[in-house]
Amino acid sequence: MKQIVKILTIVFGVSALWIGLLQTSVVPENYTWLLPLYLIVSLGCYGLLMVGVGLMKFPTCPQEAVYLQQDVREAKELLQKKGVDVGSD
């Protein structure tokens, strides 16, 4: 519930700022109508940047790789006992 209130507060604040800019003559009106589009494009760029940073910092887990190799070996042994051809290592 707290997250919804936070999001609605941000949306209300941005909307109030946008409507305020439309009412005043601080920013030309033809630019003010494009502000929501700029906001959406900016959020998209920010999202892509965060995905890129997350991929660059993707942690390697050597211990998990060992566990995965062990699980693969166990699965191959189980399948071989059941008569399934799993190929060579």
TrEMBL record:
Single annotated GO MF: glycosyltransferase activity
Keywords, alphabetical: Endoplasmic reticulum, Glycosyltransferase, Membrane, Transferase, Transmembrane, Transmembrane helix
Localization: Endoplasmic reticulum membrane
Topology class, membrane: Multi-pass membrane protein
Transmembrane segments: 7-27, 33-55
Organism of provenance: Nicotiana tabacum (Common tobacco)
InterPro entries referenced in this protein's UniProt entry, alphabetically: DPM3 (IPR013174)
Summary of subunit composition and partner proteins: Component of the dolichol-phosphate mannose (DPM) synthase complex.
Domain of life where this protein originates: Eukaryota
Name of the featured protein: Dolichol-phosphate mannosyltransferase subunit 3
CC terms in the record's Gene Ontology section: endoplasmic reticulum membrane
Family: Belongs to the DPM3 family.
Cytoplasm listed as a keyword: no
Function description: Stabilizer subunit of the dolichol-phosphate mannose (DPM) synthase complex; tethers catalytic subunit to the ER.
UniProt pathway: Protein modification; protein glycosylation
